[in-house]
Amino acid sequence: MSINPSKLVIIRGAGDIATGVAVRLHNCGFQVVMTELQTPTMIRCTVSLGQCLFGKPTEVEGITAVHAIGAEQVITALNAGQIPVLIDDDLKILETLKPNFLVDAILAKRNLGFSKHLAPVTIALGPGFTAGIDCDAVIETNRGHHLGRVIYDGPTHPNTGIPGNIAGFTHERVFRAPCNGTMHSTVHIGDLVEEGDIVATVGESKVYAPLSGMVRGLLNNGLQVTQGFKIGDIDPRGKHADYTTVSDKARAIGGAVLEAMMHLNFKQG
Length: 269
Known about the structure:
InterPro entries: Se-dep_Mo_hydrolase_YqeB. By secondary structure, the protein is α/β, with parallel strands linked by helices. It has four helices and 19 strands. The longest helix is centred in the last third of the chain and has 21 residues.
């Protein structure tokens, strides 16, 4: 198999939402390449293909991601049915691969150098983008009735700054760095904890579970964080939570990206 530009998709970002997009597109026969920062800060590590940048291939729902360096390794991974992940936040690989589709899935809540002129079909996720100006389509990422809506003219809902509601909890689910320092967790994703349990340390400071439930997200150990940085979250559903598969939100957004790609490609061709 060689690269087919008409089926090639580059996804900027390889966290849990970007992974939901990648899984859906890969399963539909697209050739998916992902890019990330030098030091990614995903916390849903068990469902983030970008985790492969921390030393070994990562598998999510039967799909394997590998760290690739350069176009040759990208082609090798695609030929093996894998998803290559590059350290390339500036999207320099576009010059070599020239994909038909480009998706910004870093969810920075603002536009960090993305343009509709970077590829024939450009799609962005969440607030910070205006369809028709920054990209060809933007996907609503705010939970609720419009989650996954494809917008071809205008912006999504503005950033609420409020984490998604799970079992009645929003801000309470998240734990953050109490100070600047190096983060080390004392629990693992999937562990059940009680409110007040120690879940991590940042420098000499302890971080406590804000509520009881299952640890669903944790920043990778050894990363430098600043005060207030999100380092993990608790799912209040406890043992009934699923930390091993793509979330309902990521799957819905993945379907919306597929819809936008098909619509825009059909419209062009």
